[in-house]
Automatic annotation (TrEMBL):
Protein's name in the database: Cx9C motif-containing protein 4, mitochondrial
Domain of life: Eukaryota
A single Gene Ontology CC term: mitochondrial intermembrane space
Sequence similarity: Belongs to the CMC4 family.
Cystine connections: 7-38, 17-28, 39-55
Broad class of where this protein is predominantly found: mitochondrion
Compartmental location: Mitochondrion intermembrane space
Amino acid sequence: MPSKPACQAEACDLQSCLNKHAYQPEKCDTVLRQLYECCDKFHTETSGSGESSACPQHSVVQRWLRNHPKGGA
């Protein structure tokens, strides 16, 4: 049985949050951050060579995290 893609649970949590809040992404910022932090860890652990259907490319993840610092800037 194949294993689930990395960060799949976080991606599902984001989808659930978006469904619950009528696709208002600003209401799901915390869940989105959790997904991107998971993806950043995944990409770092695989030295950027891993692929997951739940994660964008590492450069996209890094840019998002840089543009959305914790605590909001």
